[in-house]
Amino acid sequence: MAYGDAYFSLIANAIFGLKTAKMMDNPVLKSKSIAEFWGRRWNYLFHCVLKRGIYKPMRKYTAAAVASLAVFLASGIIHEWLNYSVQVYHHAEAPKDSIYNPDNIILGSNMAFFAWQFFVMSIEKSFGEISSAKVPQQLVPFLVIMTSLPLAFWFAEPYFQGRFFWDYEGILPTVIKMD
Q: Which pTM was predicted?
């Protein structure tokens, strides 16, 4: 995503003289909390769409926690749809007994990942941001990453299994294992 953001920004600036907002703002190293990671640094465009389309309208009628849960669940649903769509596209002709056959796709891991992120963010909100605790600032990015890393396979595995990144191999440098 960061590559696409950089390429698009470069082209928009060079051809049209437009300045673009960063879609990613170094979420791994600059985030001082889980909320900052997801809300201000990771995929800012998607954050804005969900905030305006789900969070703010729901916030008029419900508590902040309910509106936040709706945003994370919507994100999970969108990612599940994306995974399903990519797998159907890449594997429409897969044998019936193959895990790649669209009829055999197991959904739910992205939804579980985003539900976990909501849970972790809720805990952070209850106890205060990591950066405000008595933790050395150099350790904060590591702690933020560790809230996602143990369960990152819930998010990433369907993308790898569904060969989501195959479409990028033609335009981006790709590291592959050589036999």
A: 0.75
Mean pLDDT of 17-27: 78
Number of neighbours of residue 116 by Cβ within 10 angstroms: 18
Under 8 Å between Cβ of 105 and 87: yes
> What integer pLDDT is reported at residue 58 of this predicted model?
96
DSSP code string of the chain: -HHHHHHHHHHHHHHH------S---HHHH-SSHHHIIIIIS-HHHHHHHIIIIIHHHHTTS-HHHHHHHHHHHHHHHHHHHHHHHHHHHHTT--TTSTTSGGGPPP-HHHHHHHHHHHHHHHHHHH--GGGSS--TTTHHHHHHHTTGGGHHHHHHHHHHTTGGGGGTTTS-------
